[in-house]
Input
Amino acid sequence: MSLRKFISNKTIAALAVILTAFASNSAFAQAAGAAAETVAKPVDMGPVYKTVIFYTMAFLLLCLFIAIIGKALKVYELTREAQDKPKGINWNTVNGVLFALFLIVGLYGVYWEYTVHGKMILPEAASEHGKKIDQMFNITLIITTIVFIATHIILFAFAYFYKNTGKRKAYYYPHNNALERIWTIVPALVLTVLVLMGFLTWRSIFYKIEDPNNKPLSIEITSSQFSWAIRYPGADGIVGVKNYKLINGVNQLGIDFKDKNTLDDQTADEMVIPVNKPVRLILTSKDVLHSFYMPHFRIQLNTVPGMTSYFEFTPTITTEEMKAKTNDPKFAYLFLCAKICGEGHYKMQKEVRVVSQAEYEAWVKKQGTYLTDDLRKEFNLPVTAAPAPAAAKPADSVAKDTSAVKTNQLALKK
Amino acid sequence: MSTISLHDTHNHDSHDDHGHHKETFLTKYVFSQDHKMIAKQFLITGIIMAVIAMGLSILFRLQLAWPDTNFPILETFLGTWAEGGRIKPDFYLALVTIHGTIMVFFVLTAGLSGTFSNLLIPLQIGARDMASPFLNMLSYWFFFGACVIMMSSFFIQTGPASAGWTVYPPLSALPTAIKGSALGMTLWLISMIMFVASSLMGGINYVSTVLNMRTKGMDLWKMPLTIWAFFLTAILGILSFPVLVAGVVLLIFDRSFGTSFYLSDIVMGTQVLPNEGGSPILWQHLFWFLGHPEVYIVIMPALGISSEVISVNSRKPIFGYHAMIYSLIGITVLSFIVWGHHMFVTGMNPLLGGVFMITTLIIAVPSAVKTFNYLATLWRGNIKFTPAMLFAIGLVSFFISGGLTGIFLGNASLDINLHDTYFVVAHFHLVMGSAAIFGMLAGVYHWYPKMFGRMMNSKLGYLHFWLTFISAYLVFFPLHFLGLDGVPRRYYAFTEFEFMQKWLTVNVFVTWAAIIGALAQVAFLWNFFYNIFKGKKAPQNPWEANTLEWTTPVEHLHGNWPGEIPTVYRWPYDYSKPGSEADFIPQTVPFSQTMSSNMPHDFEGNTESERIQREWEAKNVPATEKLD
Output
């Protein structure tokens, strides 16, 4: 009763609103029409679309509209009932058909997503291990897509075909152990294959056998709120010791210059690495957790205060080659922060350039050292006799890593 | 009222003596010890929290879609957090943090388990109330307190916790690292301790009720799958939530008493902190030891509800009842040894990564079994599309879509590039967000007549389902591709990176879909709250279901059944049994009344019953139609 009262009140209100809207619209239209004959004078609706009231009213109007439809449906059904006719609308059929429609439109939507958005994703991996990851990704994608499509076709087709019609009784089918076994064992087998592949790839990424003739270039990355610091090892190929307790306004990374290996360590504004040479990233953090994420190379590892972690990889595609491949002259590799680290989280980035060995050597010569005159004074080092970083040999000299690096090496590393 | 908890379930002739209790408003609606009322309290609190958390998500979706636009209305409501009509970066992080916390803990854990475990456990196993009604009441009030404390952090100057819902230290431990880690984080931790206390009290109650208070005939293998799911969920919660408390207490110590459990070698700006020897990784182990079981705590009740709803509305027994239970048990056990898959790229020893990858992918097997069993249940059914059924089918769809992307993320090698990107966001919003909320909504539509004695409007339910189902896919499906392009989650704006610019239009689209999805919930809220008072009176068994709750009277009474608690004779899924006139046979109907539809395996090897059945068949059935 009160529902009816409410709806009818609403109906009246709705009609009033619609009428007003219609009237004012047509008034606008007439005015516009009249104006168009003399001078083009469009009605500026811009400010109206920006007000909250406009949207609230629009939504309320929509609600009223839905209420009216609901009311109309109810009246229709009641009259059918009163006349002893069969039910007007069979909602089981409606919903069954909607599921079938959803399946068709949805399948097209998935196709559209795969082809349109699927083209906007990262280009091919630019590192050796990244290729393996991509390959495994593709295999997983094919398997899961088949399952995804097949199960959804089954789900919505069943919803469509087995909707209640009032003529059938459901088929009493409580269990079938053979079927149960099939759909336990088949997924288990598929997953076993995926696990094995994943496991082997994972091992090949994290347990590298060091080639003494091709020692990796060590680069240390230090994250802090909200920037990255890059440290190149200098001529000796060794990133020297640092200690967080030495950090101050001048010595931002807390490098311990009593360690000789630190004297030639170089700063850099971007990460430049030679193509096809192994690179060993030494990842550390100064304050909170960050995550070193270099998507084009399929690299990610958190940087953790108080713990050093390592990631070794070999870049295979230079920046120039990638520009050609992606057909994007502005293409640039980069690394960024993927672990929530504070309000500047969304800004932490550095550019990465993959270049030829010759270009790398030319570039690295130009980079300055961390050791400045101020720091020399602080560590009681002679101020003038600086070993020129320009005399840097290639960083992959056979020198051993320092203890700083060695202490945290993986126990299982061969 | 304490007599309720002590009563003998079987030998009571009448419970009329309980009618004498004088119930005041306070004891009936506020400090109620009746499981049905507590269920409603949990549900309505859960719905309110869900609306709040959904509102928060719309706020940050606005920011993501239009990072350069001013919305003066935001400043009106949020003040300095949205100066000039634009949400600030640290408040953005607070929004995602509190959205996640509320949704995972308050809506999908307490709102889901709290509501349906409380409502259905006593009703479906045939008990007059929970094992401890008082503990049950406390459980709700601790939960309510947790909600209030969590929301109160919006009213302090430094704002709510904003280190992400996983609150990883050191970010969450150091107020100098982010404003939200000041008082807001303290409130978060206190709220969480209260929440865990609430969960434990609830869980202990659920387990003891299921184990001790089943009615005559209700052995474990005759329990509906809902009860199995709630039971195993409660066990999961009891075993894993205390670990979170341990973690939280250590974090409180680190924050307030200068200990170094999680902190070491930290320099804020140039200020060297004195903490030494701790490890931030420790928090992650403790957190995810709860955190992973938690996602099953969220999804298992939803799966249980959908099992029941799908079976009832397909008018078919659930396919593979035993397999469904064994897969639930499998999920329960395995969920304790997979937590490391959240930590593949934390720098934890890679050997562990390999181990956790294996356990993680194994857990996909029971999940797959469940999915196929749902499909088999629908096969040749006689499906009635009640709103509950629509949501249950929606759950199956989301569970498949989100579950399959889990195979990518569970693979440590693939996770390297997908970790903490939008791919993860898309994955868990489908598999545990949307699927679990659809399970919850299916439960609300299905048991609303039991809760409120009135019916919801099914047409509004259809509208609600279709808008929500479509918009959820429109929101979350495109997000996978952002992840595959290497866009990290929890980014305030995509404006700082050249390669993210191309996703701005997608963000606008996703935000519009989210707004439509949010507005669609108005249909539900109206339907829910209006019909509590004005809905059509419900019949006793509106869906023609077999389970015990539909044998109770529509008008609630304390103690559930007016007379003796009914005895159970059969499993709950005898739908459309051949030889039976009706297409459902309630659990309370003895086999002696359904001679024409009994099957040999119904008697579980009881030779006497089999003999009687054979004799009856020899008399009544022509020889050609004999079953065996």
Notes: Confidence is low (pLDDT under 50) at residues 1-19 of chain B. DSSP finds 17 helices and two strands in chain B.
